[in-house]
Amino acid sequence: MPLDFVHSACPHDCPSTCALEVERLAPDRIGRVRGASENPYTAGVICAKVARYAERQHHPDRLAQPLRRVGPKGGGRDAFRPISWDDALDEIAERFVQAEQKFDSTAVWPYFYAGTMGLVQRDGIHRLRHAKRYSLEKETICVALSDAGWMAGVGIMRGVDSREIDESDLIVVWGGNPVATQVNVMTHIARARKTRGAKLVVVDPYRTGTAEAADTHLMLKPGTDGALAAAVIHVLFAEGFADRDYMAKYADDPAGLEAHVRAKTPEWGESITGVPAQAIRDFARLYGSTKRAFIRVGYGFSRTRNGAGSLHAVTCLPTVTGAWRHKGGGALYSNRSIYHMDNALITGAEMKDPSIRALDQSRIGAVLTGDKRDLGDGPPVAAMLIQNTNPAVVCPDTTRVREGFLRDDLFVAVHEQFMTETAALADIVLPATTFLEHDDIYRASGHSFLQVTKKVVEPYAEARPNHDVICALAKRLGCTQRGFFMSEWELIDDMLAKSGWPSADEIYAKHWHDCMPAFETAHFLDGFGHADRKFHFHANWAALGGDTQGMADLPDFSAVIDAANDAHPFRLVAAPARQFLNSTFTETPGSRGREKRPTLLIHPEDALYLNIGEGAPVEVGNRQATISLHAGLFDGLQRGVVVIESIWPNADFPGGLGVNALTSAEPGKPGGGAVFHDTAVWVRAAA
């Protein structure tokens, strides 16, 4: 019998940030994990991988104690020997001091991302960074491109309440696969379909689980979303679906947009996207004639060199039709700004010096191998602390990333739950708690609930929270900011008080706090986020980044992608697998068993031409690398497009190189961002 069910929140890098109920079987053991039925967004539904979280929480391979490397880098557990926490922390602090003395403070690069989305455990690493004047991190790997695209038009990071999907008559999922990556969206879509007869349209380069469930799937070529959106806008103007009164009040230049798209016919769109002109026209008419049309803007289609422009083009649609005016109409990308959190104490913002160099996390391979375009006039990176991420697997250009980590003169400490490929390349490995073993606070991008959580069970073995490690290192390094001497709960309470929200105890007692603004604000009826309060059809890319070459300021197709050519005739999409979340859950048998093995999805006609059969070994390559895996014949994509659902560990690919060996670390436009779905490759049958 369980002791009880305890409220918690999912910490993983997903817009849903699900409200959870966790079965506590003993002070150190959990059972079932289920969605909180009383939360109106989670609505009792969570993804299967988190429902199986006991598999991960009690996995026999969890790291149990600090380790020092005594063997070769990348050698796995056999290359490490246990040490005490004090010895491990002393050594990390000493090596950071040595790096600073040999070069300067920017030779140390604390490196993190979103392995937890908790604001204390994720962001406290910045407090150490700023206190010691270590190199800054340019956070580009996930949302840099999509943020730029949304901000170009809307001007503020918020949108329509996701619960309004229940009241929509048309839902467009553009560039996302919520069946796999945000299951709660499907719950609300199902309600709208059942109660209102709502239609679901999915825009995606291949037939995902979400596309299979759709009434219409617009299956376009990767990187051509801007052309599709521009062709739809052409029809909206040409056939009388444009709301001219709305645009006159709320948009910057409707006449300029109309003139621009006059030549962007559906036939033009077909020539670029591969979507039949009639299908483009039919979708435009459906969208234009449906007032309660909700666009759930995904992340995937932004991860190309022209991704920011494509996303901006999509956000123009509800402005052209005036869909923002209607309940169940408009669009949502992220609601981050509605929480207006003052997290300065957690991040040490008052100590930040913006003149210190910022190194691009997506270009870690270039950074660690000494590329002067990244390092500038500063020193090489000589020491790192890594939390909440696994760059040896998840970052672009894997081969170069690994080359950087293999440097003899680079000291790396990794704080992790498992012996990841990055941890195996470290000098010191520290065991980390899971979200069930520490306190934290969570906001979401996909809904409006602020959630405060306490630990559910005691930490496994010698595992410690990120906050404890940051504070212990700070004290050894002489830092005096008061945040280093506070508990997680004290930091949460301080932030909530400064942000104007209820206390940590109050929110924890009621499990969540709804931060959604009023309808008029959520639908921008009181103005958009720009100074002129208008939506901007004209994107000011220069204000959002330094590289604007080849970008169109109005919705269009920017031909700056890694286009297919004779040497590389296929376009590769490195899509997320349903049972993994980045490289998390790749260690659990439930997820691995369902995913089976790394597979190249290829159209049967392309496979026939290349003499590749179902399940046959294949090689995929480009200028960066060649990887090996097995073929899966799949007609749910256009010819010339291939998909590898991942992120499988490199070791699971024959030859030991995974999909990100093929992806480029070239920054997306205008201000950087990883371009995981913008890769031209060749494919051949394995010898």
Characterization of this structure:
By secondary structure, the protein is α/β, with parallel strands linked by helices. Helix content is 31%, strand content 17%. It contains 27 helices and 25 strands. The protein has a six-stranded mixed β-sheet. A six-stranded mixed β-barrel has the order 20-24-21-23-22-25. α21 (421-424) links the parallel β15 and β16. α4 runs parallel beside α22 and α9 (225-238) packs parallel to α14. The longest helix has 18 residues, at 85-102. It is globular. The N and C termini lie far apart (56 Å). The mean pLDDT is 97. Belongs to the prokaryotic molybdopterin-containing oxidoreductase family. Residues 3-61 form the 4Fe-4S Mo/W bis-MGD-type domain. It holds the Pfam family Molybdopterin. Its cofactor is Mo-bis(molybdopterin guanine dinucleotide). Keywords: Iron, Iron-sulfur, Metal-binding, Molybdenum, Oxidoreductase.
Please sum up the structure shown.
This protein is of the alpha/beta class.
Q: What's the SSE blueprint?
A:
Elements: E1 4-9, E2 19-26, E3 29-35, H1 48-51, H2 53-57, E4 67-69, E5 80-82, H3 85-102, E6 108-112, H4 119-132, E7 136-138, H5 144-153, E8 170-174, H6 178-181, H7 183-196, E9 199-203, H8 209-212, E10 216-218, H9 225-238, H10 244-250, H11 254-261, H12 266-273, H13 277-288, E11 293-297, H14 307-315, H15 317-321, E12 330-332, H16 344-347, E13 358-360, H17 364-368, H18 372-375, E14 383-387, H19 391-394, H20 398-405, E15 411-416, H21 421-424, E16 428-431, E17 440-442, E18 449-453, H22 466-476, H23 488-499, H24 504-510, E19 513-514, H25 519-522, E20 570-573, H26 589-595, E21 599-602, H27 604-609, E22 617-621, E23 626-633, E24 641-644, E25 679-685
Parallel strand pairs: 6-14, 7-13, 8-9, 8-11, 9-10, 11-12, 14-15, 15-16, 20-24, 21-23
Antiparallel strand pairs: 1-2, 2-3, 4-5, 4-16, 17-18, 18-19, 20-25, 21-24, 22-23, 22-25
